[in-house]
Amino acid sequence: MKAYVAVCDLNGFAPGARRLGVAPSAVTRIIGSLEQDLGVRLLSRTTRSVSQTDAGTRFLERARRILADIDEARLSAGQEQAAPQGRLVVSAPLLFGQMHVAPAASLFLDRYPGAQVELNLSDRYVSLVEEGIDVAIRIGPLTDSALIARRIGETQRILVASPKYLAACGTPSLPADLKNHSLVLFQAGEQRGDWRFADGQQVSATSHARFWTNSGDAAIGHALGGGGIAAVFCYQAAPTIKDGRLVEVLHDFAPAAVPIQALFMTRRLLSAKVRAFLDVLDECSGRWKDT
Predict the structure, then answer these.
(1) In angstroms, rounded to a whole number, what is the distance separating the alpha carbons of residues 194 and 133?
(2) 42, 80, 104, 248: which has the fewest Cβ within 10 Å?
(3) Is residue 291 part of a domain?
(4) CATH number (domain holding residue 71)
(5) R_g (Cα) of the chain, nearest Å
């Protein structure tokens, strides 16, 4: 069942085998033996893809439940004695991860000597299943119903520009004025290209942007060079606002704060390492006052 779930999750025998740490040929034999034992074809195979048959889809759902029950039984048996150990894979946005998640990971490692952390920092959207992520930090509303989330903080999107740009092009006084400005669009993951404001106004940044990027650092860098007005998160722009290299505009129209959340796969009983890391994030979140 573990082999079958791995092949279905990763859409192939080779990636499924890598997850299990065995040869692809072994996984092929295991699935073949399973199909023979059940007397039904579970997977449709081509040279380029693997997909479930109708019977395979039904079996996958039940297999997941059975494996979850086994994991729960094993974990609950040693719950009191279990200490976080093994590798924990964490994903986070680049700058937020550097500022806040990396220190939390260091605290976690100091507290639990048997654990290891692999911290992947990127502003791109990552799939927890496909990339083997245990915990992903994301900013904004949760749209993936296959995941569950723990809120660990909040931040706000603000508009910033360099004094050089504002001196040359003027300072907008209303959101509608942005149509006459060069906009810098930072768009990562499932973020949309519409800028919404507290009074309900909305501006299509996609229609007026001259620079698009999935990197917050690149967006801020372009704004610092006088390239236009950028919408970024408070924590991304805080250092450059503090030293005067960027200026916040349309502050009175700033939208409501958005959540910072730790996401993980739905499980009725979390592993000790995931549960402990979430607790450390909760503990550290009280220090994230300037995000």
Answers:
(1) 29
(2) 80
(3) no
(4) 1.10.10.10
(5) 23
Question: Hey, what amino acid is at 85?
Answer: Q
- Are 201 and 218 within one domain? yes
Q: Is the same domain home to 263 and 139? A: yes
Domain limit, last residue, from 77, 103, 126: 77
- Residue 171: domain span: 157-253
Q: Give the type of residue at 286.
A: G
Q: Would strands 86-92 and 50-52 be described as parallel, antiparallel, or unpaired?
A: unpaired
Query: How many domains does the chain contain in total?
Result: 3
Angle between helices 2-10 and 54-77 (to 10 degrees): 120
Clarify whether residues 219 and 276 are in a common domain. no
DSSP 198-255: TTS-EEEHHHHEEEEES-HHHHHHHHHTT--EEEEEHHHHHHHHHTTSSEEE-GGGPP
Q: Both 113 and 240 in a single domain? A: no
Tens of pLDDT along the chain (291 residues) come to: 999 999 998 888 998 999 899 999 999 999 999 999 999 999 988 877 888 999 999 898 888 878 877 776 676 666 545 678 888 999 999 889 999 999 999 999 999 998 999 999 988 888 887 787 889 999 887 766 567 888 998 888 899 999 999 999 999 999 889 989 999 988 765 455 678 787 677 777 767 788 988 888 899 999 999 999 998 889 889 899 999 999 999 998 888 888 999 998 765 567 788 889 999 999 988 776 555
- Give all strands of the β-sheet with 147-155 in edge-to-edge order: 115-121, 86-92, 135-139, 258-265, 147-155
Is 175 in the same domain as 44?
no
DSSP 8-state symbol, 85: -
The answer to whether 155 and 260 have CB atoms below 8 angstroms apart is: yes
